[in-house]
Design brief:
111 residues, mainly alpha
């Protein structure tokens, strides 16, 4: 394989990987638990999870997120997929500000 071809192949691979990046740019410092924390499952989490997650995560996709306990058990995965990355929700409907708020609530334990 010629070095020119190898260089072109490497450049194409890097370009395709960059196109797949779904990072939101949000970092752990952005989602530190604020004090005082006023968000609860009753006044925040239940509505957000219902609006953004339950179309898929009640029967057809795992993890199931249909209770507060299940949301709490999956908080780390939710932060990874819906806060640090835009993989969830699949329609990409959340803004970064909404993702940060979700991350803060989850970081505080999803009370």
């Amino acid at each position: 394989m010629s070095s020119r071809f190898a260089s072109l192949l490497a450049l194409a691979l890097l370009s395709s990987l960059a196109a797949c990046d779904d990072s939101t740019g949000i970092v752990a410092a952005d989602i530190a638990c604020p004090t005082p924390q006023t968000l609860t499952y009753a006044n925040y989490g239940q509505a957000v999870i219902a609006a953004e997650c339950l179309d898929c995560h009640t029967t057809k996709e795992r993890p199931f997120l249909d209770t507060q306990a299940r949301v709490q058990q999956n908080a780390t995965k939710i932060i990874q997929e819906a806060v640090y990355h835009s993989a969830m929700p699949e329609d990409g409907s959340m803004t970064n500000a909404e993702r940060i708020q979700l991350g803060q609530w989850l970081t505080c334990g999803a009370p």
